[in-house]
Automatic annotation (TrEMBL):
Signal peptide: none annotated. This is Mucin desulfatase. Transmembrane segments: none annotated. It comes from the Bacteria. Residues 14-259 form the Aminoglycoside phosphotransferase domain. Gene3D superfamilies: 3.90.1200.10. PANTHER family: AMINOGLYCOSIDE PHOSPHOTRANSFERASE DOMAIN-CONTAINING PROTEIN-RELATED (PTHR21064), SLR1880 PROTEIN (PTHR21064:SF5). Pfam families: APH.
Length: 360
C-alpha cells in the first residue's frame, strides 16, 4: 500500500469477496485513530493481457461516472461510483517486481454483491444500476476505449471457433456432445444477427460493462437500493443488448450455472419483468427503437454465446474456465442450453411485455 496515495498506518489485509477473476483484498488503514478500508486487487494478467491500458480505461470511466453523478446532484457520489487511488507517481496501476499488476479503490462500505438472485427487488435494482451506468457513459468524450478482450462478444467468431474445435476433437468426446453441438450449430443465423446489425450501422456502439452479473452491483444493506456498479475490467465498446442480455442470463433463474438437475434451470418470467422495468427506468431515455427491440434477443444470445464457450472449453480439455471435474464445462453448457431454449420459446411474448413496460 505504500506505493499508493493512501494515508495512515497499515493495519491488515484480508482476502475479500467471491470474484473469480482477480485476487481481491480488503486493506485496513489507521488514519489518526480512524480505520479506513480500501480494496486492493491484483489484476488477472492471463485474462487481461494489457493491464496498463485496461487501467487507462477504468480511470477515465470512473472520473466520467463521478462527474455525471455530481451533475445529477448526487451528494455521496464517491460511494455511487468506484474511485481509483493512484500510485505516488500518479499512475492508476502499480507493477511489482514479479510482473504483477495492482490497483486500489475506495472501499464501498455498507453494501454487498449477491451471487444468486433472491428476489425481484434485487433484479430491478441491478438492472437499474447497469442502465444508469450506460446512461452516464453515453457521451464519454475522447478516444474510443481500448478493447480489453478483443472480439469479446463476436458471437459468430466464437461459433466458428467451436466448429473447428468440434471437428478436430477426439471421436468419443465429439460423440458425447452431439446433441449440444447440434443446438449451437443449427442456430448460426442468430449468432451473427447483432454483429451484422452493428456492421450495417443500425445498432450503435456504446460503452458497455460486459459482465453484468448481479454480484457486480453493490446493494445497500439498509435501503436495499443499488449503490454502485463494480468490476470494470471488461468495460469497452459494445452493444446495449449484450449488457441487458447478460443480466437476463444470470438473473432470471435461481439455478447455479453448473446445476446438474436441468429441471431446476427454470426461466422466471417475474425476474425477467423486474429486470426489464429496472433497466428501462434508467436507460429508457437514450435507447433507440432497434436497441429496445433486441433486448430480449440479447438474453437469448448471451446465454447461447456463453454456452458455446463452455462447450468449446470442454472439447479442448478445460483450458480456460476453472473446473472441479472433467464434465464441469459440459454441465455448464447444458444449463445454458436449457435457459436459452426457454427464452427462445417465449421470446415473442417477452418482447410484447417489454414493449408494454416501455410504453407505460
Ligand atoms: P472479479 O473480477 O474477480 O469478480 P471484482 O472487481 O468483482 O473482481 O471484486 C471481487 C469482489 O470484491 C466483489 O464481488 C465485491 O464483493 C468486492 N469489491 C470489489 N470492489 C469493491 C469496492 N470498491 N468496495 C467494496 N467491495 C468491493
Ligand atoms: Mg466481479
Ligand atoms: Mg471481473
Amino acid at each position: 500500500m505504500e506505493r499508493f496515495c493512501v494515508a495512515g498506518d497499515f493495519v491488515e489485509a484480508c482476502p475479500y469477496g467471491s470474484g473469480h477473476i482477480n485476487d481481491t483484498y480488503a486493506v485496513t488503514m489507521d488514519q489518526a485513530g480512524r480505520t479506513v478500508r480500501y480494496i486492493l486487487q491484483r489484476i488477472n494478467h492471463r485474462v487481461f493481457p494489457d493491464p496498463p491500458r485496461l487501467m487507462e480505461n477504468i480511470h477515465r470511466i470512473c472520473r466520467e461516472l463521478g462527474a455525471g453523478l455530481r451533475r445529477d446532484g448526487e451528494e455521496r457520489s464517491s460511494r455511487r461510483a468506484l474511485t481509483v487511488v493512484c500510485t505516488r507517481e500518479g499512475a492508476p496501476v502499480h507493477q511489482d517486481d514479479q510482473g504483477g499488476f495492482w490497483r486500489v479503490y475506495y472501499f464501498i462500505e455498507g453494501a454487498l454483491g449477491y451471487d444468486v438472485v433472491e428476489n425481484h427487488r434485487q433484479a430491478f435494482e441491478a438492472a437499474r444500476a447497469f442502465g444508469e451506468f450506460q446512461r452516464l457513459l453515453a457521451d464519454l468524450p475522447g478516444p474510443r476505449l481500448h478493447e480489453t478482450i478483443p472480439g469479446f462478444h463476436d458471437t459468430p467468431r466464437r461459433l466458428e471457433r467451436f466448429r473447428q474445435v468440434f471437428a478436430e476433437a477426439p471421436r468419443p468426446r465429439r460423440e458425447a456432445v452431439r446433441v449440444e453441438a447440434e443446438f449451437f450449430l443449427s442456430r448460426h443465423d442468430e449468432a451473427s444477427r447483432l454483429v451484422s446489425l452493428q456492421r450495417q450501422g443500425l445498432l450503435p456502439e456504446r460503452v458497455t460493462h460486459n459482465d453484468t452479473k448481479l454480484n457486480n452491483v453493490l446493494i445497500d444493506q439498509e435501503t436495499h437500493q443499488a449503490v454502485c456498479v463494480i468490476d470494470l475490467d471488461t468495460v469497452m465498446p459494445g452493444l446495449v443488448p449484450y449488457d441487458f442480455g447478460d443480466l437476463v442470463r444470470t438473473s432470471t433463474t435461481r439455478a447455479v450455472e453448473d446445476e446438474r438437475d436441468l429441471e431446476k434451470v427454470r426461466f422466471d418470467r417475474e425476474f425477467f419483468l423486474a429486470l426489464a422495468r429496472g433497466y428501462l427506468s434508467s436507460a429508457g431515455a437514450f435507447l433507440t427503437p432497434l436497441e429496445r427491440e433486441h433486448l430480449v434477443f440479447g438474453g437469448f444470445l448471451m446465454t447461447y454465446e456463453v454456452g458455446v464457450r463452455f462447450l468449446t472449453d470442454y472439447l479442448e480439455g478445460n483450458v480456460y474456465f476453472k473446473t472441479a471435474y472433467d464434465e464441469h464445462n459440459l454441465v455448464r453448457a447444458r444449463t445454458q442450453i436449457a435457459l436459452a431454449s426457454q427464452i427462445e420459446a417465449v421470446r415473442g411474448e417477452l418482447e410484447e411485455e417489454l414493449a408494454q413496460i416501455d410504453r407505460a
